[in-house]
Amino acid sequence: MVGEHIDILNAAETPPFHMDDLHVGEDIRLRYRYIDLRRPEMLARLQLRAKITRLLRQFLDEQGFLDIETPMLTKATPEGARDYLVPSRTHTGQFFALPQSPQLFKQLLMMSGMERYYQIVRCFRDEDLRADRQPEFTQLDIEMSFIDESIITNLMESMIRGLFKTVLNEDLPDPFPRMTYQEAMRRYGSDKPDLRVPLELTDVGDLIADVKFKVFAKPANDPKGRVAALCVPNQGLSRKQIDDYTNFVAIYGAKGLAYIKVNDINAGRDGLQSPILKFLPDNAISAILERTKADSGSIIFFGADKAKIVNEALGALRLKIGEDLKLVEKGWKPLWIIDYPMFEWDENRWISLHHPFTAPNVPDIEMLENNPGTCLSRAYDMVLNGEEIGGGSIRIHSPEMQSAAFKVLGIGEQEAREKFGFLLDALKFGCPPHGGIAFGLDRLVMLMSGANSIREVIAFPKTQTASCLLTSAPSAASTEQLRELHIRLRKQP
Known about the structure:
Blueprint: H1 26-31, H2 33-36, H3 40-62, E1 66-67, E2 84-87, E3 95-98, H4 103-111, E4 116-124, E5 136-145, H5 149-168, E6 178-180, H6 181-188, E7 201-203, H7 214-220, E8 225-232, H8 239-250, E9 258-262, E10 272-273, H9 282-291, E11 299-306, H10 307-324, E12 334-338, E13 343-346, E14 349-352, H11 365-370, E15 379-384, E16 387-394, H12 399-408, H13 413-427, E17 434-440, H14 441-449, H15 479-484
Parallel strand pairs: 1-4, 6-12
Antiparallel strand pairs: 2-3, 4-5, 5-17, 7-8, 8-11, 9-10, 9-11, 12-15, 13-14, 15-16, 16-17
């Protein structure tokens, strides 16, 4: 075939960057996102996303789930983050909220007899952003009636196993390992541990509780304190590397990073190097070396503070050392984290570790009200390579138990009626036992595609300051629009 003429369909200016330029700044890429999306790797990621969502829908459809939409304009409810508020023109001085999740609506669907619901849904949270967070994000939202934890976790891991086999030809374990929240925090300092990193934390508080070194002894004898060790085998870290890690843990509130270098395990105290050795007796040193399984060439880092600070600091250090020293194993390491505490104490009140509709594992209301700090919840999170990709729970289906949970959280009867009256009323009409889970679709696609941020798998993402460089949103509203909404702006100082 010979071309006889050419039609110019449209003129095109020179693009702001070349398609093969790997060093274009993200701000430029987001400003000209329609150009950025022309690149083969971006197209491949969106194609992968479409394939993943298609397979997830197919699995759930075959299992008898109904795809049901829930409202985008709804009522503000406390679910752990700030709501995005939408002013109402027709109801002066009142506001809708964009949903942080369809949590209450999917529970109402269970009360309606739908039994198996799912939805791929947009959710909105006005919170500080990170690489795996966006102000608007996508969830695969799921709820089922007449189930217990084993039914839904087995079904969900079957779905994820099939997805990985079809998309990546990867065989995930069957079944996924289960680990309690308490064990995860003790061994890894995190409730979303990356099992590809072989390093673990070791409690040593009982070994140094009686030493005169107050830095260790004080948290060791504090019920809310923790002294833990992280043994890094045979790496020969330099003093500069140790100083860098000391600065790193300071980000998480640690006041320092004590260490012991094991030059020769057979030489006793003489084979060790550390500024804290003079504060520790021989029996404590020997016990620490034995418990941490240290050997010649090892270095032992210590965290000693409030348990929360130690967990966050050493948990993050564990991952950083694993990455820096190339200790991260290849492959996929999924697991379920179970037996979360129902509540945690925050300064002067109890707060829900998940959300206030999570069922406790106690059989009666009196146990919940009298011992909230010891109650575990019927919650379960799916973790993959250090990322929480799904979280859910069995829900409270009794109005009396739901009211008791609100009471523990300091939500009085009047406040409960104002915020959740529609839920409490619905529970009175024969609510079945039910539970569910929500998967972060953006995060799942990010992991499966090998991207470093969920912004790389969203067609038009926001920046880390929750703005859109492409459309210059958010932007100012006109005086006429504000007047219609009965809104007057204050002058900023």
